[in-house]
Amino acid sequence: MADHAIIPSPLGPIYIEGSENGISRISLKPEDTHGEQGEIPEPLKACAEQLTAYFAGTLQEFDLRLDFGDAPEFHQEVWKMVKLIPYGRTRTYTDIAEIIDHHNASRAVGHANGVNPLPIVIPCHRVIGKDGSLTGYAYGLEMKRWLLSHERPGQYMKQSDLIEVLEKA
Fold first, then answer.
1. What's the pLDDT score for residue 59?
2. How far apart are CA 83 and CA 1, in angstroms?
3. Average pLDDT over residues 41-53
4. From residue 154, how far is each of 39, 52, 148 by CA, in Å?
5. 45 and 115 share a domain?
6. Is residue 145 part of a domain?
7. How does residue 83 score in pLDDT terms, banded at 50, 70 and 90?
8. Which CATH number fits the domain that encloses residue 36?
9. Phi–psi pair at 25, nearest 5 degrees
10. Catalytic pick from 40, 105, 124, 128?
11. Residue 142 sits in which domain range?
């Protein structure tokens, strides 16, 4: 049976689910984060601590046991490659497709990212369009931009934020 926890973050509450087999789900959706959180169950403590450290800017690489359950092999292959994208860096959907030797599967890579059960830990926010644009993110492009800006400040600012920065300079 899976345990769950809800932790605070700058993006709002984060829902974590997992068991002794590993972390199986992380959600930033408001409907998943309702309810009171008591003590964090032991199998989820490392994940909660590492997410907190990530948001504090003191952790760049997660070291957690992950449980992909019965996810399709292709999805797992994509997620394992996405997990290797370094902090503050990006890759394109095409890059991932080519690395896993599915050269014409950039849309399938996008779909796998769209159903990623472990956002942030498997940093699908670091996958961008071939032209460098921020495309597709299950939690919206503003959250994707926030995560990328958190990792590499100034690189992914909204145009309006950039104008404010320039006006203050």
1. 96
2. 26
3. 95
4. 37, 22, 9
5. no
6. yes
7. very high
8. 3.30.160
9. -160, 140
10. 124
11. 73-151
> E strands, the chain, where?
3-7, 14-19, 22-27, 91-92, 127-128
Give the predicted TM-score (pTM) of the model. 0.86
Closest CA to 2 of 40, 43, 30, 62: 43
pLDDT at residue number 161? 47
C-alpha 82/C-alpha 141 separation (Å) is 18
pLDDT of residue 163: 43
- Is 124 catalytic? The answer is yes
Q: Are 126 and 90 in contact (CB under 8 A)?
A: yes
Nearest Cα neighbor of 155 from 93, 87, 95, 97 is 87
- State residue 143 phi and psi, 5-degree precision: -70, -40
Answer yes or no: is 40 within a domain: yes
Residue 37 lies in a domain: yes
Is 115 in contact with 108 (CB distance < 8 Å)? no
- Of residues 133 and 72, more confidence is placed in 72
Using an 8 Å Cβ cutoff, are 45 and 23 in contact?
Answer: no
